[in-house]
Every structure is written in structure tokens, then in C-alpha cells.
Amino acid sequence: MLNKMTSVAEKKYSLPSEDKKAQYLLGKILADGLSQNELNAAYDDVSKDYDQVVLDNGYKAPNSCAEAVTKLFPEEDRAGLVTLDIGAGTGLLAEEMLKKGFKTLDALDPSQGMLDIAQEKGIYRNYICDAIGKEPLKIPADSYDIVTVVGSHIANHIESEALIEIIRLVKSGGIVCIVARMESLSNLDKYKDSFFPLCDDLEKAGKWTKIECSPCPYWNRIQGVQLVYRVC
Predict the structure, then answer these.
(1) What is the spatial distance between Cα 186 and Cα 183, in angstroms, rounded to a whole number?
(2) Which end of the chain has fewer CB atoms < 10 Å from its terminal CB, N or C?
(3) Rounded to the nearest 10 degrees, how much is the dihedral formed by the CA atoms of 175, 181, 186, 190?
(4) How far is CA 56 from CA 53, 90, 196, 198, in A?
(5) How far apart, in whole angstroms, are the C-alpha atoms of residue 135 and residue 151?
(6) For residue range 32-61, what is the model confidence (pLDDT) as tens digits?
(7) pTM for this one?
């Protein structure tokens, strides 16, 4: 079973290391054609070991996102800002944001198992078990100063069109920060012809303005990209 699962990641993704636990984790969540319920169950299965496996293998995407957001806000302003962490998982990004002076974060993730781990840490204000997509969430528009999306642009996960809903959730003048595998956005069918063009189209339509699009540390030998936009 392990060889069957890891072969999916080896075919379609760079692996962060030769560590078998990391390969197993990726094989679980990147298996071909998972439904949302199957993906949720896969995350539930790995939730208790998730932090140790990814951190032991040099996962830096949350750090990259926290650094990108932090440099946009003076230290004295950070405690009063409200952040939605989309694909929050076990709360690795929130831990980094709290270190930098941000105090109020909500977690959105479709895996209850992952949210349970985050809740044990006590690092979010709200724990919302849901998946973002094309349809509006049960969250009012203009609710957040910052929305972050870290590591969720991969197979079986968030669609490009979710950008529209992300913008709806952010206050005018607020920030969206996305950190992703560059290879996913460039090579996967679900993103390669839609993600960056939609980003550009939304900017042309006056929905947001690009602040940054640059390489960043992601996961050991895997290259990341960070995109930062200010919502209009």
C-alpha cells in the first residue's frame, strides 16, 4: 500500500526528501481523483503525525507567508488585524503569525481531524470546518484584514476560481497572501491555464492590485512562490 500511495507523488510532484513518512503523507493526500470527503478522510488519518512529518522534512511555506505578510504592517498595528487562514490544517501558519504580533486568526479547513489538532493548540479564534470553492461561504463579505492560503494549490485541493470568493472575504485595502508550489501552478491542468490568467483578469477588473510575486522557501528542495495582493 505504501508503494502504491507514494508512486502518485513521485509521478506528479517533487518530493521534499527521501523520508518515507513524508512520501506516505503526500501519497495519501495526492492520490488521483479524491473526492472532497475522501481528501478530508486522508487528512484526518495523518493529522496526528502531520506536524512532525512536515517540520522534520523542512517545511517552510508557513514561515514564508508569515514573513511576506509581516513586512506590510507596522508592529503596533498587527494585534488589531483579523486574519482568515484558508487551508489552516494544524495551525502551522498561525503559530508563525502569533510570533510576529498578530493576535486574531480564524481557521478554515475541511478536515475536522486537522482542526482538532489546531484547536488543541488554542491558536485560533474560530475553527470553521468547510472548504472554499466557487460558492460563497457562510461568512459575511469584508470580514477580514488578511486572508492567507498556504500549501493548498495542489491536486485535489482548492480551485483557481476560489480567488473570487477569497477577495469577497477581504476588506478594501486588505491583503491576500498565497504561498504555493510553483510546479503546481505551472504544470497541473487545474491551474496552468487558469490561475495566473485569473489573477491578472481580477487585477484588470479592479478587484485587487499585485504587490509581489516572487520565489520563496517552500519545502526543503521544493521551490515555492508567494503572491501578495491588496484588495481594492
Answers:
(1) 5
(2) N
(3) -80
(4) 5, 15, 31, 35
(5) 21
(6) 999 999 999 999 999 999 999 999 999 999
(7) 0.94
